[in-house]
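Me: I hope this is not a bother. Any chance you could explain this protein sequence and its structure tokens? It all follows right here:
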Amino acid sequence: MINIKKGYVSIIVPVYNVMDYLRECLDSILAQTYNRIEAIFIDDGSTDGSGRVLDEYAAYFNVRVVHQSNKGVSGARNEGLKRATGEFVTFVDADDRILPNYIEKLVEGIADCDMAVCNMPAEWTRGFGIKQTKKEMARIFEVNGYTWGKLIRKKDIDIQFLNSVKYAEDYIFYINLCNKIENINVMDYYGYFYRVRPGSLSVKQKGEAHTEREFYNKLTFLYGLPEIEKAIKGWNKAGKRVVRNHCYYISLLLLMIYYRSGVEDEYSKNKIREELRSHYISFVLVTLLKDLKIKRFIFGTTLIMMPKTGAKLASKLLG
């Protein structure tokens, strides 16, 4: 049983082969004006020297370093959650950095609510302030479903990241979390600096060719659709519609990426095609159909049934 430290913030940082950016991240965390923090770095089997850098910083009283065999970013975050002792939890990516008052501002923001969120333009969330309907909360994660930029109460986290999902796993985590919280404070504050790295799976553009491995990783989002459906089962219709339409949009992107992918082996292409069709038909067209707009339904059906025609249409509509 972990003793929770009141007022403390656990900063969980999964680390995998980011040695070129790691010191900048570490230094930005150690420079926080809010001093009741514990920084938990999970070295997820790095091979580039990131582990050695972490060991240098382990001498700081508020830095904890855990080395483990590679389990993926979800496994690393879950390990961090298991070890967190703070009243609050936030996630930072190891190649990003935060302003010195970042944690202080988030703690102020969570005072009268269940979660504080920053780095979000007002037009994305229809204004700043407290959001408390499922529809409003779902919209926040629709435009920023990343783990970073948020502060959560540890007591509300009795869920884990899905190890089987390697793309948009954070979105699934937060949709699940919506069942544990009642409101979110969207703050007019920007203190998190997200680094866009060339070739990163999360930021690779729709028009770029994906390798077979990259595509398979993105494809795992479809495995999380049943979990999402289970999470929103008790939601009202408006909230469900926001989540389902977002899931449908991501599924369409996956289909489009497939038809533009760099996968050339016929066996692999056929295997991927069947996997896509199976999940698309089972969870998207059937389960999600009732909340989709007719244009999206026609587009998706064309893409899955007539790939060449659908791919051309996708290129025009999605860029």
User: Anything to note?
Assistant: The first helix runs from residue 19 to 30. The CA atoms of residues 166 and 256 lie 18 Å apart. Residues 212-318 form one domain. The mean pLDDT is 83.
